[in-house]
Amino acid sequence: MNANARQNLGENLIAIREASGLSKVDFALQLGISRVLLDLIESGNSNLKLSALEQIAERLGVQPWELIR
Fold it and tell me: Distance (Å, rounded) from C-alpha 4 to C-alpha 58?
């Protein structure tokens, strides 16, 4: 995943988390990932595997491409 896609993913997850009113811990639990990984994703510093992106998108009820656009 290129830097732009990682940054977009992070920004989109922050927006979704803030809109839902969830803490980072609660949001990470909802996504099935650790809070540390959520921190890395939100900061654009995680190079996720496609399978992890698909899992996160599925749990949010969106398509993977919607998270990186």
Answer: 22
